[in-house]
Amino acid sequence: MDVNAHKKASKEELDAITEDDVADIFSASLETLFDHQPITLASAGTVYTHQCRNIPPKGCATDKPIQITLTTPDTLATNWSLHASDIWMSSKYVADHLDQLGIEVLPADSSCPSRKLRILELGASAGLPGISIAKVYDNVSVVVSDYPDELLIRTLSENVARNDVSGSCRAAPYAWGSDPSHIISENEAFDIVLAADTLWNSSLHTVLIQSLQLTLKKSRTARAHLVAGLHTGRYTIQSFLTSVQDAGFDIERAIEKEVKGTEERVWDVNGDNDERVRRRWVVWIVLKWKLEC
After folding, report:
1. pTM for the structure as a whole
2. DSSP readout, 23-81?
3. Residues 183-193: tens digit of each pLDDT
4. Nearest to 219, CA basis, from 182, 188, 180
5. What digits encode the pLDDT tens for the residues 64-101?
6. What is the DSSP string of 203-270?
7. CB atoms within 10 A of CB 33
8. Is 274 strand, coil or helix?
9. Is 272 exposed, middle or buried (0-12, 13-18, 19+ CB in 10 A)?
């Protein structure tokens, strides 16, 4: 073995390490050395690979291991405040727990047995949850949406194509609170609306709730699923829960879930507020319409 050649190759590999690589290594080191749970998994321009686990046994498009490969999008400088250039831990949590969306148990349309369940992801960024759904299930039609930023939507569209789900999933620009007619085909709203880590900015709660009102199908079985890391802040999350109940929705459940464990507990605005602890939990909120009997 040529030891010098080995040393040269190692130096070239070191020279090829980017700032993003250093940041990822540093983040992993924090978790290992200091028990520090990262809340983002990838930064703008980096490639993130996710191995789907806990795949539901029924309604699945394949029985083979499923891998999702995504480019983390960047945005125009004017839209950096969106924080759409990250893949958040709550997105990974949803992708790992697709069974909790209830896709398998939603009743079929008796008037049209071949009709696919319509699913919308709001604030999708790289599209991990929505693309995972389209990859795992064969009875769905998915729209992954985010703010109408040219760079963001281009990358989101490329992620859909890269994972071979263009037949059941499409990327679309959508600004919260605006007319959703371009994402609602045949005047039919969505059976499931999903959003991960979208509650952190309380000034956007009003338009997010308006989007739920405009896009969730008015039926007894339609559900909105919002999953937020507890790093969002308990009072910020509670502010959303209060507002959404005033907007025609009931909270079917709100459960705090340990990200890397199995522990669960009922949502409590007065729960543990230690920042290191909150990084290890998400809250999964399920909303339904308040409909008269």
Report:
1. 0.84
2. HHHHHHHHHHHH----SEEEETT-EEEEE--S--SSSBS-SS--EEEEEPP---GGGGG
3. 997 778 999 99
4. 188
5. 678 999 999 998 888 887 777 788 899 999 999 999 99
6. GGHHHHHHHHHHHB-SSSS-EEEEEEEGGG-HHHHHHHHHHHHTTTEEEEEEEEEETTS--EEE--TT
7. 8
8. coil
9. middle
